[in-house]
């Protein structure tokens, strides 16, 4: 007899599959209280690892020796450069929409030219190439000119920053903060929307590039990955309203006012977590250490205390604590990247890793290598007006 994991009642229907166990995730786990683990490592413990080491951990399941990580970095470097045609085609796509739309189209474009219809090979190649794709999309969308020629030997994020033509920024500063952002966003369990969508699309045997394009389309939604953009815009809006009058009292009054007017307060709560997101805790500490005088950093520190205090008064809110988006955009902005429209691309650059590795598991390893069946949940019929 197999164990009952979850009793489904009518109250569980139409709740976004919240909390339903649907399978196994081998790369990472999100515990409501302890937060995110990559394999068995709490994310806070490895936040300052080099991205190549953290990617190697997710990709292979082990923290490699120095030599193993070097070999893995070399492997990524050998696959890193996109066929020039990929970048030429990206630069011919329309660029007036949101950059995430361009990113999705760029992934399909790359798949048409570089795809091998082999989940394992495409997983490695895509992880290696995604910095060049992301840099091409941002440079083209922002009107920052053509990317500089890729130099994979610089390192994964070092090369991304080298290719990206961010105006007036210190490359060292960007590298430091982008590395941390990258490691913190590589994976988040199996059930976050983009990962679930990517794996569901792959379950119909769509290839890796198409599945990741679908996943990135899911990530682009403001309730998911684009929340980091909305959060910084929210913090900037509050700063604009309060000007030189930022204090715990004025921020609290403004938050109460917004809630009373049914306006959203961004950066708090999470579907799974019931504590402050440990990724946010790491970023708050960095912000406090590196940018203590930045006005947006000061404001996010006040919001960190005032937000939970006010939101916890509403008994319907099960998690009033800050999530990663509450602070990630402020740190990016303080480091010299004040471009909220591109924050979700940075998220996608990182998350492609976790999703691609999970897809390989579901397609090539699970069920003794047979792979999981096509995703096909059941809906109950109910008559209702449709419009
Ligand atoms: C994520 O990193 O994917 C977000 O925190 C959303 C989630 O886990 O559902």
UniProtKB/TrEMBL annotation:
Keywords: Acyltransferase, Transferase. The keyword Lyase does not apply. One of its GO terms (molecular function) is citrate synthase activity. Its EC number is 2.3.3.16. PROSITE patterns: CITRATE_SYNTHASE (PS00480). This is citrate synthase (unknown stereospecificity). Pfam families: Citrate_synt. Pathway: Carbohydrate metabolism; tricarboxylic acid cycle; isocitrate from oxaloacetate: step 1/2. Belongs to the citrate synthase family. GO terms for biological process: carbohydrate metabolic process; tricarboxylic acid cycle.
């Amino acid at each position: 007899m197999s164990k009952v994991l979850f009793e489904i009642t009518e109250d569980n229907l139409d709740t976004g599959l919240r909390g339903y166990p649907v399978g196994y995730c081998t790369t990472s786990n999100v515990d409501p209280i302890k937060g995110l683990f990559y394999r068995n490592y709490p994310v806070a413990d490895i936040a300052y690892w080099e991205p190549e080491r953290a990617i190697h951990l997710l990709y292979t399941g082990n923290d490699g020796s120095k030599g193993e990580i070097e070999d893995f970095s070399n492997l990524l470097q050998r696959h890193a450069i996109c066929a020039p045609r990929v970048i030429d085609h990206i630069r011919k796509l329309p660029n007036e929409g949101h950059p995430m739309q361009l990113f999705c189209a760029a992934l399909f474009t790359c798949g048409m030219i570089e795809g091998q219809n082999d989940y394992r090979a495409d997983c490695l190649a895509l992880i290696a190439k995604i910095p060049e794709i992301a840099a091409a999309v941002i440079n083209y969308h922002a009107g920052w000119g053509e990317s500089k020629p890729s130099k994979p030997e610089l390192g994964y994020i070092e090369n991304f920053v080298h290719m990206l033509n961010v105006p007036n920024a210190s490359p060292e500063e960007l590298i430091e903060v982008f590395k941390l952002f990258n490691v913190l966003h590589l994976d988040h369990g199996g059930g976050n929307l983009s990962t679930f969508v990517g794996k569901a699309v792959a379950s119909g045997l769509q290839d890796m590039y198409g599945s990741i394009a679908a996943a990135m389309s899911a990530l682009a939604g403001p309730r998911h990955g684009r929340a980091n953009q909305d959060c910084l815009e929210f913090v900037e809006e509050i700063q604009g309203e309060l000007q030189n009058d930022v204090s715990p009292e004025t921020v609290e009054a403004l938050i109460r006012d917004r809630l009373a007017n049914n306006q959203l307060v961004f950066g708090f709560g999470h579907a799974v977590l019931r504590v402050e997101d440990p990724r946010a805790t790491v970023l708050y500490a960095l912000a406090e250490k590196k940018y203590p005088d930045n006005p947006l950093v000061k404001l996010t520190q006040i919001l960190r205390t005032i937000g939970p205090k006010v939101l916890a008064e509403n008994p319907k809110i099960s998690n009033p604590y800050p999530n990663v988006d509450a602070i990630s955009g402020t740190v990016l902005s303080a480091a010299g990247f004040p471009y909220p429209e591109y924050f979700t691309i940075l998220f996608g650059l990182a998350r492609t890793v976790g999703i691609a590795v999970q897809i390989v598991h579901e397609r090539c390893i699970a069920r003794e290598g047979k792979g999981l069946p096509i995703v096909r949940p059941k809906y109950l019929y109910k008559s209702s007006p449709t419009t």
